[in-house]
Design brief:
By secondary structure, the protein is mostly helical. Helix content is 73%, strand content 11%. The protein has 5 helices and 3 strands. The protein has helices spanning 2-7, 9-20, 25-35, 42-54, 76-123; strands spanning 23-24, 58-63, 69-74. A 3-stranded antiparallel beta sheet has the order 1-3-2. Strand 2 and strand 3 (69-74) form a beta hairpin. Helix 2 packs across helix 3 and helix 2 (9-20) packs antiparallel against helix 5. The chain is elongated, with a radius of gyration of 21 Å. The chain starts with a helix and ends with a helix.
Length: 124
């Protein structure tokens, strides 16, 4: 379950963003939204932060001021996880051309096989 939380769409982006510094909720939402096409809803970001906090990866610091101020930061465990996730994200970015080439080769080979099966079905 922890792996699922850490590698979820929003978990990855939150962890990587918090590697740089602590953020208030609205700052984090904007920062994550800049990376994602559609942005993250308040509900989804709240759920993600609660899950990561429960797993011991994120620290929530609520300050008793008016208006209330809540900062989110990584714990030591969260920093370790975030560094690993960031490395995987960087690898993915660097190797995306290779992934695309592999997908194209797979799709072409699959299409040839499908066409051969269809031809065999017609001639049988």
């Amino acid at each position: 379950m922890v792996l699922e939380h850490v590698t979820s769409r929003w978990g990855v982006l939150v962890l990587i963003e918090l590697l740089e510094r602590s953020h208030r909720f609205s700052e984090l939402r904007r920062a994550v939204g800049r990376v994602s096409e559609k942005g993250v809803s308040e509900k989804m970001l709240t759920q993600t932060l609660q899950t990561l906090e429960r797993d011991g990866l994120v620290h929530r610091d609520a300050k008793p001021v008016i208006p209330p101020r809540v900062d989110y930061s990584l714990t030591g465990l969260g920093r370790e996880a975030a560094e690993q996730v960031r490395a995987l994200a960087e690898w993915t970015k660097e190797r995306m051309a290779d992934v695309e080439a592999a997908r194209e080769a797979y799709d072409e080979a699959r299409q040839v096989c499908d066409e051969a099966r269809a031809l065999n079905a017609r001639t049988s």
